[in-house]
Each structure stands twice: as C-alpha cells, then as structure tokens.
Amino acid sequence: MRFQIITLSCATLFLAMPVFPYGALGHETVGAIADMKLAGTPTGAQVTKLLDGITLSRASVLADEIKGWDRLPKGKPKSVLLKDHPQLQEQLVAFWEANPPTKAKGSDAPTHKEFHYTDVPAVDGSTYVKGKLGTEPYDIVQMIPFCVRVLSGAEPETNQRKITKPIALILLAHYVGDIHQPLHVGNAYFSSAGNLVNPSKGGKSFPDHGGNGFNIILTDEKNSKSAAKGDSKSGAKSSGKKSSKSKGNNLHSFWDTEAVVEALDQVEKKIQSQPNSKGKSTDEEVIAWFANTEPTDWKPSAQSKPTDWAQAWANDILPMSTQAHERLEFSNVTIKNESAYGDATEKKMPDGISYTQWSGQRTEEELHKAGWRLAAIIEASLNAKNSEIKKPASNK
Ligand SMILES: [Zn+2]
Fold first, then answer.
1. Strand 196-197 relative to strand 189-190: parallel, antiparallel, unpaired?
2. Could you tell me which of 76, 81, 34 has the C-alpha nearest to residue 57?
3. Distance from the CA of 387 to the center of ligand 1, in angstroms?
4. Domains of the chain: which residue ranges?
5. Is the Cα dihedral 308, 310, 311, 313 positive or negative?
6. Share of the chain above pLDDT 90, in %
7. Contact, 383 vs 312, CB < 8 A?
8. DSSP string of 301-361?
9. How far is the CA of 366 from the centre of ligand 1 (A)?
10. What pLDDT digit, counting tens, does each position of 237-276 carry?
11. Distance from the CA of 66 to the center of ligand 1, in angstroms?
12. What confidence score (pLDDT) does residue 248 get?
C-alpha cells in the first residue's frame, strides 16, 4: 500500500519511499496523522495559512531534503523544493544559510544537521540532562522548544537561526518524528576494546552515532538486505562508516525505514482483522486508524508547558533506545576517528520476538504518539498565552 501516491481529504501524501528515501515514510505518516487530527479545526486553518496550503505531511520531510543542499558547490542555486510557494522556499534557504553545514573556524554557531538528534547514553536509567554527556546546546531537545517559542511569539521571527513561524512548523513536523525514533535520542558507547559501556562510569568511550556505524544482521533474512540509507543522525560524521565487512543494513537506517514498514504492516493487519474489513486497507484507512484511536501514554502532564515536552518525550523513549541495543550482539567493533564501527547481530530473546517484529511494534506505538503529539504541540504553541511561554535568558 505504501508505494503509491495517495490522496486524503485533508492532505496529499507522498508515501513513495523511492522518491524520498531518507526515512520519509515515517515522517509523512506522523505529519498525515497530525493533518487529519487538525483538519477542520481553527489550528488546522492557522497551519494551512502559515504553510501556504502545504500539508504537515509534505512539510515533514523538508528538514531532511535541505541536506541535499549541503553537497552543492558554493554559489550553486538551491534546488526548488517548494515550487509554487516561493516565499516558503526563500525562508528555507535563509534558514539553511543561517545554520550552514560547515561551521566557520572558531565559531560555536550550530549547523542544521545537529538539530535532528541528541546522543544521550542508551543505558538503564538514563535521562536527558541539559549540558550532560550526549547533549548539545542546539540538539533536538532544545530545538523543539525553540520552534514552540517562535510559534507562540515568545521568540521573534527575526532570530539568529532564521526560524520564522512557517519554518518553525516545517521543523516541528520533522523533529517531532525524529524524537520518536529511539536511535535519534539514545546512543551506544563503546570502550577502546570494543565493549558496550556505560560512559558515565568513567573511562574513555566512543559513540556509535545513533547506529550509523553498525551493520545490522538479522535472523530474518528479508530485512538483512542492503537498504536505502536512512536519515543520517550525525550528518557528515556518518560518512564512510560502513564496516569493511558490510553485508547488511545500517542500524540507524533500519529504524528509519524497515521498522516503519513493519509497523505499518502490523497496523494494516489489525485493520484487516476487524469484522467489517473489506480486505486490503488503503493508506487513508491506516492514517485514520492512527488518528481516530487514542494512543496510550501520549499526553503531556497537566502542569507541563509545551516547551517542556521535548525533554519528556526524550526521557519517554530512552528505555526503548536501551532495549534496541540490548537485543543486539555487537562484534568486530573498531574505533576510528573517535567513533565506533562494527556489526550488530540480532540476539535470540527469551520472549521469542524477532528484532524486526519487536521494532515494528515499538515503531507503531511511536508513530502513533508522534502524530498525536505533533498536533498537540502545534495547537498549544499557536494558542499559548504570552505568560505561558517565555524565552529563556540564556538562549539566543
Ligand atoms: Zn531528521
């Protein structure tokens, strides 16, 4: 069902992986769930106005698509990503230029690729603590509230990062998807001997950059084929990271693509097993299932502000990041340029669930929560009272 272009009443979805291979299917699904939840609401009308009619599903992949501009020779005009929306295209270019892929010498200004992830150690009991190992001033947990502040008016649209209200929506549509992918939040660390370690216990350790350094080898052969490259968590840092023994898929890509395909297959099966099912389900039915069924444990706590939610979501997914590593056996680990590379082989687990099936179940839950949370954070941001969301003194 997913290798076609489909039309929803509220959104045109491009769920065709060959067109946008960088984890697009997951992002578009999250965006489409939010589109459907906001359709016909005052917030939905505000979104349509700010995005000049493009849907959140379409907007959700733009933060990855602009990575294509990073490879253009200097001065070469940027490809047009938003043909009939010149003002949005202009704002995207301004955002890219304000957060360029390569840092100027001595500059602590961020690059846009850093905004998609955080590298908190994926170990038992780990939580996101600003300033601690694996966090950065401009990581995903900081950038989501930045976008919330822009949308609420607490941060001026003339900010240094060039995040206007439309760009804030485009980025939120993407980052809320990314923060629900366990390897965009939790990171494995290895000792120089190549063993998985808890870096907070001391000793030198080396990160695997969200699984980008590891080939995943699955018992289930259908998923051990070489697959499309995923949404690289660490951008340039991940280049050249395939092990010399590369025969499988990159662990990060697996979670960006195969786990999403498996999750959507599982939803399709649920729809098909319903008594009134007509057999094969459409994309619209899959999205409607997500949008009309309330996920468990998705709601933010009543006292929290939308600027607090990204941190809560990161902490929510960290145990899954840990399990995503615990279900694998790491071997042939080498350390190169302060990063770990090697093979990650599926372990036989006492629960008898394969890695593919397990990751599909978890990804279904995460896509579901992400869609609902995206709609909720946009609604809360656009309707926040000035007193609710303030610009932190330390953040420019
Ligand atoms: Zn991303």
1. antiparallel
2. 34
3. 31
4. 5-70+86-101+111-295+304-382
5. positive
6. 72
7. no
8. PTT--GGGHHHHHHHHHHHHHHHHHHTEEEEEEEEETTEEEEEEEEPPPTT---HHHHHHH
9. 15
10. 333 323 333 345 899 999 999 999 999 999 999 999 988 8
11. 11
12. 52
d(CA 30, CA 13): 11
Q: Is 218 helix (H, G, I), strand (E, B) or coil?
A: coil
Q: Residue 91 CB: number of other CB atoms within 10 A? A: 20
The encoded tokens of residue 39 equal 């359709």
26, 175 in Cβ contact below 8 A? no
To the nearest 10 degrees (0 to 180), the angle between helices 140-152 and 355-382 is 30
Beta strands in 143-263 (DSSP E): 186-187, 189-190, 196-197, 206-207, 214-217, 249-250
Q: How far apart are alpha carbons 229 and 185 in whole angstroms?
A: 19
Instruction: Compute, in angstroms, the gap from residue 233 CA to the centroid of ligand 1.
Output: 7
Residue 250: phi and psi, rounded to 5, are -70, 135
Classified by CATH at the fold level, domain 5-70+86-101+111-295+304-382 comes out as P1 Nuclease (1.10.575)
Q: How far is Cα 296 from Cα 278, in angstroms, rounded to an integer?
A: 27
Length of the chain counted residue by residue = 396
How many Å lie between the centroid of ligand 1 and the Cα of residue 142? 14
Task: Compute the chain's Rg from CA coordinates.
Answer: 20
Q: pLDDT tens digit string along 6-21? A: 333 333 333 333 333 3
Q: How far is the CA of 280 from the centre of ligand 1 (A)?
A: 31
Q: Which residues pair with 121 in a beta bridge?
A: 187
Tokens coding 207: 């990160």
Q: What is the DSSP letter of 143?
A: H
- Calculate the CA 340 to chain-centre distance: 22
Residue 169 makes CB contacts below 8 A (sequence gap 6+) with 47, 50, 51, 56, 59, 147, 151, 378
Distance 63 CA to ligand 1 centre (A): 7
pTM, two decimal places: 0.87
The DSSP secondary-structure symbol of 71 reads G
Q: What percent of the chain has pLDDT over 70?
A: 85
Q: What does the alpha-carbon distance between residue 367 and residue 347 come to, in Å, rounded to a whole number?
A: 25
For 308-348, what is each residue's pLDDT tens digit?
999 999 999 999 999 999 999 999 999 999 999 999 999 99
